[in-house]
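Reply to dn_fold:

You asked what the input looked like. This is it:
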Amino acid sequence: MRWTKMEIILVAVMLLSLNTELFAEQPMAGLWVMPDASALLEIRPENDSSNSESFEIRIISVLNSEFSSADDVELMGQPRTDRKNADEALKSRSLEGLKIGQGFQLEGARLTGGTIYDPESGKNYRAQLQLEEDGLLRVRAYLGFSVLGQTMHWRRANEFKETMLQMLADIPD
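and this is what came back:
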């Protein structure tokens, strides 16, 4: 079967509009910054698929890529790793590129049903992520029941960058 140019164009337009709709339905996908600016995180569809219904979170980079004296004098200057992991075999893996969240399902302006790993404690938590009206991402991590958890707010990386650039511009020469 041979396709006409018009049929090819029509199929391409349909696929492009479908892809645009998929990304419009993923308002939380993208780069985020931790509240203390210690890490740049990415929320993206799992399995690197733009049409995935499941999302993951990865650490893209960390502010301090090496351990400092504030962490442990014996580790000072060494690359920052997942040293608090309960699995001995995983303690030497780098934090950069580490998947810390998985199994999140999109429900409106929320990602639910997933788990999040805290490399600072080495523990896994159930989590819910909700996009707030002010653009912040409310991250609620908990054990068992949501009321027994902790909440933090992540900022979009581009907004954080703009805020930092404005602040740095005010520094006198």
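Residues 63 and 70 are 14 Å apart (CA to CA).
Hope that clears it up.
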